[in-house]
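Researcher: Next entry in the queue.
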Amino acid sequence: MDEDKADGGKGNSFFIRKWVMRQYWRLQQSQAFISLGFWATTLTLLIWPYVRWRFDEGAVFLSVPITYWGIVFVFISVITLVLTVGFTYDRVFGLWNEWRTVDTERNPYATHQLMPPQMVLMGLMNETLRRIAPDDKEVQKTCEWVSEWLERSTKEELFARAFKGWEDTMQTDLPELCFLPEGVITERRRELESGRGKE
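Model: Structure for this entry, 199 residues:
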């Protein structure tokens, strides 16, 4: 087990990676504003040669040459156009609604896949329901189907990553979860260890 794993993933490389990703996240958050500024500036400089003849280069308004007022006017016009397109996209056409629908349809974890925390909660609720209604055949049939879904989800890569994280950070090993068939966790642990051996 390397240094990062020994201290629960809090080694020097962990903090370096976290710092780098924090800066990357900050760049992403400011990207829209920076892009708008760059595009508005670029388009202003491209448009200005075609409209500057309308402004008297020798004129002055409020002690500022009229040329600068013209550039500012073009800059504001470009930003207004961009915001108008965005407003139309949002309030008139509402295309983001369909985009979100398609995005959700293409996301397996919003349709048929389960994330590990969601899987644990669903498994506990399923096991509780199974024990509350042991004589109800329909309930038991439904619980069996959910159990099969949960067991299949343990074979996915995301569960393997979560399993590895739990094993590396928790002081107690992951027990055989009561809502999974006996031996599933042991089998996944064996697969994880064999994978580490290959690495």
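Model: The CA atoms of residues 47 and 74 lie 8 Å apart.
Researcher: Noted, moving on.
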